[in-house]
Structure formats: structure tokens, C-alpha cells
Amino acid sequence: MMKKLSIAIIISFLYFLANFSAAHSAVLDISKFGGSPNADITKAFTSAWNEACASISAAKIVIPSGTYKMGLLEVKGPCKAPVEVQVDGTIQAPPNNADLKGAEQWIRFDSIESLTLSGKGVFDGQGAAAWKGASIAWKDKSHGTGSDKRAINIYFAACTNTLVTGITSKDSKYFHFNVLGCNNITFDGVTIIAPDESPNTDGIHMGRSNGVTITNTNIGTGDDCVSLGDGSKKVTVQNVNCGPGHGISVGSLGKYPNEENVEGFLVKNCTLTKTENGVRIKTWPDTPGKITVTDMHFEDITMNNVMNPVIVDQEYCPWNQCSKKNPSQIKLSKVTFKNIKGTSGTAEGVTIICSSGVPCDGVELNNVDLTFNGAPATAKCSHVNPLVTGKAPVCGASASASPSGSSDSASPAQESAPKEEKLPSKKGASSKE
């Protein structure tokens, strides 16, 4: 109850901030800076941003209905007052990834406090050509000759008190949204769409951020609907529809040194439909460092024909690109799965494969009611003794196994190319596998 109240307070505060700012703001229509439909508005937006950011009172940039082109864009704070960007038109990225000059994102908001991104508009990444190129690159990469450099649609780096509401992100070349080093950012009423075969088009990925709320949002992509990288803290995903895609994931974690702990994740009142995985925690074996992952709670979730609805996989090794000589050193604790119901696309509805080096603690299955072809789904567990209450499948022993049917153990023809993880650079690179 207190958690739900705190989320409502945060969202109400951000909306109050946005509405207060709007009521007292200078309105900067993009047309006043030379922006017009069916033309490139990169320079016009940059000019509008510079004026808005320098204003000592709140300012709003408005992009009216219509279709616009936009090239590589990076806007920075700090600004002198809150800024809102209201997008009611469709903004199109260059379809050719090379036109973004090798940047890791199309649009970047950096070091801004009290930013609102609103409207009924669409950010269209026009990713089809990039997806095709990525598939070719990953085939070549198996022979050591490939490259897969694609742009994220929208990147928030080191932003504080941010509200993203109403907008749509469509057909990103890579992730749709990336959140790195941010505090108190809310996505409310957002739509994220891409074909289910589009590789690595995660809906919202985050890392090293505190206080991320995703609510009342619809996500259907070719990869994770929501994914948490290292250093994610106090994250809430509530009233979200996920599918198609690969589910809602914590990780992967542990592949690189100097990763940070992950703590405080609540997924509640969500529906997943025909996703490749359900709710998942994944860590690499033979990890170079030690971190903890704690207070992970998945509650009141409906699964509709979902492959691998509940997964903890501490032997995560897509395409066998790692060593399993030593177990994962990532410690998992206080992980609960409560009131999860629906249909599984695999016989094993629950798979909990913990590390033999640091077994999981405090894992609970409470009213996990999943069926496969009309019969109760089964559970497979290793290196864990979960507390089972209410109706839930009984864990069967498993010496060592990845989830059956998991998309991450699929053949290259079936699965998206793995992401290249990297530690955050000064620019704020994402870390996702």
C-alpha cells in the first residue's frame, strides 16, 4: 500500500511540475525557428532548445502535428528552469544508420533537471534497414569480420526529475529508450512498438539509475520490454502490457568488472502476451566480480502463452560465448514471485537455476498458477530451496541446465544477436546483453 502511494505521489508531483511549468511557461513553436513539416528540423530544434534552456522561467518547445525529419541531436543542461518538449507530430530519424555518424543514439538529453517530454507524437527510428544490416553483421561476426553499431532512439543521461508521457517510440534501430545515471524518471502512458523480429529493440533499458517508474505503458518489440542493467535501484514497473518481445528482465549481470549492485525492483499488475520469456533474472557464470541483487518482487502478473514465464538463470551464456568453469558470483536474495497466473508456452513454467558458488537466499513462490496445454506447468530448480506457499509447482531437481525453450539458447537463426556489453563511458554508454 505504501509503495503504491509513493508511486502515486511521485507521478502526481511530476505532473504538477509539468502543469505548473506549462501554465507559466514561454511557448516556443518550432515554426518560429524555421521548422516546418516535411523538412529537417534539427537546427530549428537546437535553436529552440538553446532559448528554452537559457530562460529564467519555465519554457515549452512545441512541435505541432505533421511529419518532420531530424538528424543526430544532442541537447544538454543544466538549464535555468524546467523545460517541456511537447511533440504532437511524427519525427523521423534517417533510415540509414551511417547518417548518424556512428553515434550510439539518435536523440540525447544530457544533464537536465526537470525535463518533460510529452505529447501524442511519434519518434520513428525507421530501423528496418539497420535491422537487416545487423543480421548480416552478426553472421559475419561469427567469422570475426562483422560490426553492429546501431543507434538508440532516445537516450537520457544524468537527468533528474524527468517525466515522459503520451509519446510513442516506433521502430528504433536499437533500444527505444536508454536511461543511464538518472534520478527520478517516470514513463507514464508511453507506447513502444517494433516488429517481433527486430533485433535488440529493447523497450526501456536502464543502468546506474535510481527511482525509475514505468506505468500505464504498452510495449511490443523484438527484445526485452524492460531491462535492468547494473546499478539499477528503486525501479517500479506497474500496469504495463508486454508483448511481443522477450519479457521483463534483470540483467544480464556479471560479465564485466566494476559492476554495481542492483536492488529494489517491483513488477506489479502487468500482462505479458506471447513473449519469448516472462519475468527473468539472468547472470553470467565465471564472473570477474561480485555484486548483489536483492529485493526483486514480481506480483499480480498475467501470462498469456508465454515461453518460460518465470526464470532465474545464473548460468546465462547465449551462443555459448562464455566459460562455465566457475559459477556465477552474483548473489541473489529476497526474490518473490506472487500471484502469477496464466498459460505457459513451455512445460516448465518455473525455472530457478541459482549459482552453485553463492546459492540464492529468500526465494518465494506464492500462488504461482500456470498451465501448459491445460495441465499444471512444472518447476525446475537447482541450488535453491524456495519457500512455496499457496498453489505453486513443486521444484524438481536440476543439476545444471538453461531454461528449455529459452530464446537466449536458440540458434542464431532464431534469436536476436547478443548485445555488446560495455561499462559506461563518460558519455554514458549502456550495458546490456
From TrEMBL:
Enumerate the InterPro entries for this protein. Glyco_hydro_28, PbH1, Pectin_lyas_fold, Pectin_lyase_fold/virulence
Task: State the Gene3D superfamilies in the record.
Answer: Single-stranded right-handed beta-helix, Pectin lyase-like
Q: Where is the signal peptide?
A: 1-25
Which keywords does this chain's UniProt record carry? Cell wall, Cell wall biogenesis/degradation, Glycosidase, Hydrolase, Secreted, Signal
Region listing for Disordered, in residue ranges:
396-433
**Secreted keyword on record:** yes
Q: Where in the cell is it found?
A: Secreted, Cell wall
What superkingdom heads the lineage? Eukaryota
- Ranges of compositional bias, category Basic and acidic residues: 417-433
Any GO BP:
cell wall organization
What is the name of this protein? Polygalacturonase
The GO molecular function terms of this record are: polygalacturonase activity
